[in-house]
From TrEMBL:
GO terms for molecular function: 4-alpha-glucanotransferase activity. The lineage of its organism: Bacteria, Bacillati, Bacillota, Erysipelotrichia, Erysipelotrichales. This is 4-alpha-glucanotransferase. NCBIfam families: malQ, PRK14508.1-3. The keyword Kinase does not apply. It comes from Candidatus Merdibacter merdavium. It comes from the Bacteria.
Amino acid sequence: MKKSGILMPVSSLPSAYGIGAFDSAAVTFAQQLRRSGQQLWQILPLGPTGYGNSPYQPIALTAGNPYYISLEDLEQRGWLMPDELPEPQIHRDRVDYGWLYATRPRLLRLAFSRSEIRDDPAFIAFQQQEQVSDYALYMALKDHHQGAPWYEWPEALRFREEAALVQARAQLKEEVAFHAFTQYVFEQQWLKLKGEVNALGIRIIGDLPFHAAYDSVDVWAHPELFALNTKREMEKTAGCPGDRDQPQGQNWGCPLYCWPAHEQEGWRWWISRYAQAARWYDGVRADHAGGCLSSFAIPYGAAPSAGHRVPGPGSALFRALRAAFPELEIIVENDGLHPDVTMLAAQCGLRDMRVMQVSFDYHGTMPDEYPHDCVCVSGTHDQDTLTGWLNRMSTEEKAAVKAYLHTDEEDVWSLCAQCLSHLMHTGCEICIIPMQDWLHLDSHARINSPGTLGENWMWRMHRGQFHDQLEQLMAQISRDSGRVLSEKP
């Protein structure tokens, strides 16, 4: 049976305290998905963000963002008092990361001080996990060095000399425990929320970034897995060449992988990442899957125009992941314009993607001809909202959309509604629509504009925007298109 779902970042939920969280607002949203006939909730990566707030270059690829921790839950546990909570920010449509950075750590530290969790055997065992241990020490050291990146720390710490690490753990014992605490509570709350969402008959699709940020736990703890010199410096960075949307190309500033090292260790690091994903999610979107075929390498400090292609591991990585996790739904990121990625997905038993906006913009395969087993979407987090896309079209471009839909409708709102209905009625097994498209929001609600800084990763839904009438409309379209959730989960 065909299925449908919504792309909605956790950060965009209308929670009370400045950013979406694992709280009652998240449960309410899942209940609304159930009533509107949806079976899937796709989210963006959950990792702790650094400069630029992008979840695709987190501080740690296997850690959780402490901002998503529910303050409601901390209050219910008695770790925070009601008068200590900040003023609710229910009606703001933007995440204020500066405010969160200035206020949230204090509340989490206060909760930690009251938790009496240090001697809990479950917490002690959690702390000893390699990924948690590395993250907690890294964050404690980063705080100790006033936020400086690891490659500016003293040499003994940069190169992870055992004596220096032992000394740091002893000196920063309380800080290390605090950062482990944030991960412990994060995972407790997330798995509880996932259980409640699953009980409603809704599966969660997570998102796994492909690249690691240079200033990250991953590169600091596993330098041998990245293309660094003997000083642990980057000589080349990853990016992408210019195209129609970004003529100058992009330099992402992150290191390339040392693929022979990954293959030599039997893909252990990747398998560890996906093992966590299999616990946290019901399926995953593999970001930048084309990076397995080749990466765009740019000499350090140079413009993207100086870059060139270097080969990746081909299908070897995804074959290993499919063998390790045969039941995990893996969706490869693909806009439909890269047949080599489509072939990669087919070779490895993964699910491919198609993007409606890209089909029109680049005269690709139209939705009626999308493969049955693919995931079709109206747009992604890197693209404009459907309404914003239609608003900025030329007369000729809009005429092409109207001709395809067999309509004379001029109103953008109506055109957006027809696009969504048409996509839902395709034969694709899975159809996922960004929440902003169902809300008919314009470019102000765009999640990310690649290659820019500023208003990215900030959009939040207001309480009340996902109203009863919209639930009913979505449910009706889901029924009419054969994407109906059964009465009993």
